[in-house]
Amino acid sequence: MQSERWQSWTDVFNLAVEQPPDERAAFLERSCDGDEALRRKVELLVKYHDTAGDFIKSPAFQVAPELLVGDPEALIGQHLGCYRLEAVAGVGGMGVVYLAWDERLGRKVALKLLPQSMVTNEADLQRLEREARTASALNHPNIVTIHDIGEVDSTHYVATEFIEGTTLRERMTKGPIPPNEAVDIAAQVASALCVAHRAGIVHRDIKPENIMLRPDGYVKVLDFGIAKLTQQETLGTTTMLRAQPATQQSMVLGTTRYMSPEQAMAQQVDARSDLWSLGVVLYEMLAGSVPFEGETATAVIAAIFESNPQPLKHRTPIVPSALQTVVDRSLRKDPAERYQTAEEMLSELHAIKEKGDSIAGRRARWIAVAAVAAMLVGLALFYASRSGRTAPTRATAMTEKSIAVLPFENLNKDEEDAFFAGGVQDEILTDLAKVADLKVISRTSVMKYKSDLERNLREIANTLGVSHVVEGSVQRAGERVRVNVQLIDARNDAHLWAEHYDRDVADVFAIQSEIAQQIANQLRAKLSVAEKAAIAERPTTDLVAYAFYTKAKDLAWDLAWNDWEGAEKSLNRKVELLEKATQRDPIFALAYCALAKTQCDLFLATGAEFSDVSRTRLELAKKAADAALQIRPDLGEAHLELARYYFCAGDFDRARDELTIVRRTLPNNSEALYIAARIDRRQNRWDDSLANYQKASELDPRNTEAAFWYRDTYFEMRRYNELEQLITKDAARGPLQSPWTQLWLAMIKLAKGDPVAARVLLAQVPLDFGPTEWIWETRFTAALYLRDYDAASRVIAATPVKFADFTFLGGQPPESWADGQVARARGDTQKALAAFSTARKRLDAKWETQVKDDRYFAQIAAIDAGLGRKEEAIREARRAVELRPIAKDSLQGPEIATSLAFVYAWTGERARALEELEIVAKIPAGPTYGDLLLNPRWDDLRGDKRFDKIVAAAKAASR
Amino acid sequence: MMAPASPQQQVTQLLTEWRSGDPSALEKLIPLVQPELQRLAHHYMSRERPGHTLQTTALLDDAYLQLADKTHPHWQNRAHFFAVAAQLMRRIMVDHARQRHALKRSGGAIRITLDECAAVTETRSAELLALDEALEKLAAADQRKARVVEMRYFGGLTMEEIADVLKIHVNTVTRDWTAARAWLFAALSGENMDAV
Predict the structure, then answer these.
(1) Backbone φ and ψ of A503, nearest 5°
(2) In this predicted model, what pLDDT tens digit does every residue of A179-218 receive, in sequence order?
(3) What distance in Å separates residue A10's CA from the closest CA in chain B?
(4) What is the complex's ipTM, to 2 decimals?
């Protein structure tokens, strides 16, 4: 019906416009024949016809040709969601890649925009997004991290890590690659494939365009997980890549050359297909051209199926036969004859690499590192000028007046005198650290760079965030000592100052002071009168006492994780030496300070339990600190030790008072900042805590323990995104590396309620990585969240005995607290009760000789709840909260309160449980969103709307 | 495995299928033709001298010659190829316009440059999107008119060429064009065309 009206409408309209304007009205009267609606409409359209001007007179392409061509440059400066497009990074077959700035997280990313017409099938898109999400859980130095996938107004995008460097393709245009380098590149790609394949992801598009070479030697593989989003399936179908500006032909050819036979046949591909493609890449790197060539795609495919590639030695003279073997094996037509796993191929490549590792290759890398540093500075300027914001790179944080005093070389053959060199370095460092106008790196961090190892000063300086370093050597010969020292500007290797001392041993203090003074002058640091005096001061006049003191300080005290016994032995020896020092010189204040610190370390090393033994330790620490203060009431180090004592004793307010004094007198002291940070966490000043950790990490960048607690603080605060950023930023160069990276990321995933991704990450942590019980706890938790009880039981069984106690509250499997949890979740009441009974007995036995504190009560309450002993459980849990309420301890208080909540939950006191949870779900150190969402221990509360709200609140509090 | 047809053979084959009435052939055609068009557009853009207008049909002619199988030239296929190309051009341009529009809107970034061209493009993007939407509405009520507009505005085909593709008289094409143009202008000027 309507179309008929339309036709008549069109005819009337056309006739009307043919009439002279003044006759139109009359014409319409006649032809519309009383149809008012028709007349009005035609009148309207005639009006618009008259005023249309040259509306769509010219074809679109003439009017807006840039829209046909699609000028990628035009989008620069625009935003897509939270990303600001900064520059075009590359134009490839799959759309344009931009360098973009993520305004939310403050980092650069590579942003790939996928045109809408490319992403056609909804089901395909979802499947591919899922795959990309799994890929984004891959964390490996050779895999480009996928940060984000999304869509804004039908424009789909993928945001990945931005890589500085060139593609392998660009590199190859300069000619064939030397075998050593080729093997290294292939090995890194293979390494990436190991991880991806283990996670079930096949890349499907390994080729030189997808392999990036960073100037520092790292190889990054692009497009994992999204290779299929834009990939052409095979030649047979007609979904093709957009070519811009290369022709469709060359794009097709480009991908075809690297396809495995099964890929070209559009059959199922698996890991071995990727290994074929890697074989092709390896061949091309060595020979300078691909093994299978042809004029058209068809010809190439034919070659892939039928021909055998030319032996490498015909193309290039210097290829080891082992390499030819690797290439041959990867290019077997039958996948069953190739390497079956990436690991196989990788180990072969490693074997070849080891044989041929040349110094030339290594040198190139060192030089390249400097180039990266320079580039970072350049980039920082780039960002500063673009947006008035400084990029968070180390380069910008480096000031002129920053310095690291590296361990001196000990030229004495005699081991006995080895400590002496350490003493000289330490004194110089300590002296310089007193200058507020200088940034001086803490001892803990510099000690990582022992003098006997090959040191690259530029890299060290870059890692530590300083512009200058001090190197030196010490030789003691009888009553003489020779000291060589030099001050170097690490940015350009300029030697600013050097001196040679040859004096009596008795003058060593004068030497140290002089050196410190000279260095401060060279760096043009402002020195106050007090600072000058502090530098000139001698720690003691007794050389024998000083020897004891220095020996004690030199003892390796870096508390290895959970190596309690080793630490205790070492610390006791320290006490011995320091006591000898104070006996020799009763006014050796610094020795008393070192003694106080050692006593506190012992207190902490022995589990910090309030037994009689440990209480005594603390008292000894106080005694030593007081002694030091008596001798020198204004000594910063003494106040630091007093602060430390108070912290250990739990008197936080006094500790903070002391720390205020310390900060004035010891401006570069990172320990004071750590203690402050730890106190802050417990007194609900979380932001201050972070700030202190941040400052401390600038002064002590290689301190692994501190780095750990810093990250832990972010975690407790539920600031997962920032933590993730910190983790990945430091993954390559920070103090905590893989597998810590994976462990942290896994914990974040669990907290965010994604145990699947957590599991993928945990699989990348080797089973023998065991510095801490956290790893086992995390594995257990992941299994629990997934309700994979078999896996959970396996984890318990596999946990090393030394941790089982700590983590799983005693008992050997299957009768530990953890076993009880699993059994209860499964509904196996009998087993649960048996496990809980055993756990209870063990717990009581453990605490028999100790004063029961809040930890005991929380734990026993949980067990009693599991045993169904309602009254006792609630009483005990309440007692725990009484002893450590949140108001008193914002770090552990919430955990105790959470135990109360779940004791309520398990004993049927639903309303009370919810009451407690409402408080802790939002605050730092409370239960994570993931825990509330997935942990079976909260099952009794599920289904209640109030609980749902609590879960949502926890989610909202996470960021 | 049978060796796959060359792209040119595929294009010709698909054109024939489409002419015979298989609508799915069009879907398959578009991606094949797309890259060539873009390449040529680039080529034309770089050769353009100021004041020299781009000839759309010359562009399409070239594209057709590139892609169609040289062993079987068909007049009828050429016209249909052009019709496909018109759809294609529309889709590509709307895609790009959408992208620009999305970027502009979602950031609220203030353009610092006083680049007149850029500002103009932004306006054109918005207009193009509005036109595209209006054209969709028109197609719902009168498909033939929409196709005429598409071929004329996006493909640059002459009235005769359009008549040939649609197999109608050239006068009908002209009348359709005039009416559709007024209708679209009204729509873009804010008139509620649902009532019409």
Answers:
(1) -140, 180
(2) 888 999 999 999 999 888 887 888 888 999 889 888 778 8
(3) 6
(4) 0.78
